[in-house]
Amino acid sequence: MEPNLIVYLVIKYRKYTCMHCITVMEICGYKWRAIFGLTYQCFYSIGYMSLSGVAYNWRDWHETMFVCTILSLPFLLFAMIIPESPRWLFTKEKDGPATKTTLRMAKFNGVRLTEEDWQRANVTDEKIQLSENSNERKYSSIDLFKRPGIRLTTVKIMFNWFVNSFVFYGISLNAGALAGDIFVNNTLNGVMGMGSNIFCMLVMDKIGRRLLLTLMLLLAGCGLLASAIINEFKGDDQGLETLGLVFAFAAKCGISGSFSVIYNFTAELYPTVVRSNGIGMGSLSARIGGIVAPFVISLQDYVSWLPNVIFGSLGVIAGLSALTFQETNGDTMMETLEEAEVFYKTGKLPKAKSLDKGDKSGFNTDLSRDLKDMNIFTKL
């Protein structure tokens, strides 16, 4: 309902630079990142299914938007009680608020912090200067394109987010073209999304983010291509019509899973200092994909099979391109641009080097790394 495209993109970008999913990822220890990150996405599927009931009762889109807005208002209260990410606060040298939040979370989870834990959470002035991570240093989206490693990663992430959103909305907005009732199909799409999220939650730590993202995108792309071929030659055959519907739902399952995985994966691919900017840039690309999708769907009025072929082909391309990302499974979350550059190049987080040698290439600030990844915020 924004007045123009520019305002829409700006609002969406600012929304995702402060998304709660970033906070979820940053306050959880490694063992819990996949579970909490994808549980967060499950609520999207619940909302998606609920929309079928809203749209069924309020058919006019103005009424639908009004009802959805009213139902969403109570959730604004969460913004008042969710604390700032301690990881981000430590990175910004805001030790007071970071300590207060950490103690409150540790107390809530029954974890006792020792003096040694706090000593490991401190960063020396030399390391602050070495990483250029001081209170005066401000990071923005421009930093996503200054260095070669993070620049290439950002371009690939933007493409992947674009395709994820493009295919996701291509399937979702085209539910009316599927055989059967549009409200039932939309609800079933939500069920597929929920099942996909649960599946990804169970296997993400076992097979890794990169492979899972690739498999989900390939499932979406191949499912759409198969559905397009079957629908083109089905004629009056009810069996082929049902088979085409099955492949379409499989594609929905795949794209829902990949869209959920890309949130977690993106958060882990960026260091703390630019993590929100990276997800914001990905979200901006995703909104462009969502805007373009309806225009591609309209092509079915001229060539019935063309939209699904376009969506499916891009899904396959994005799936293969996802193999070029570095795998983050098993790694702690990065803090600085320096260690991110080393990670993009080698696939491994750099180890701390002696500051006396002045070697910056392998610098890895231990900026509360041990403290933040010891699961003090969530019970084991």
Give an account of the 3D structure.
With 380 residues, the chain is mainly alpha-helical. 68% of the residues lie in helices and 0% in strands. The protein has 17 helices and no strands. It is globular, with a radius of gyration of 22 Å. The protein starts with a helix and ends in an 8-residue tail after the last helix. The C terminus is likely disordered.
Helix content: 55-70%
Indicate the low-confidence ranges by residue numbers: 123-130, 352-380
Our count of helices gives 17
Approximate shape = globular
For the record, give the distance between the C-alpha atoms at the N and C termini, rounded to a whole number: 44 Å
Averaged pLDDT: 78
Strand content: under 5%
Main sheet overview: none
- SSE string, helix = H, strand = E? HHHHHHHHHHHHHHHHH
Short key terms for the protein model shown above:
mainly alpha; 17 helices; disordered C terminus; 68% helix; 380 residues; single chain
Write a brief structural summary.
The chain has 380 residues and is mostly helical.
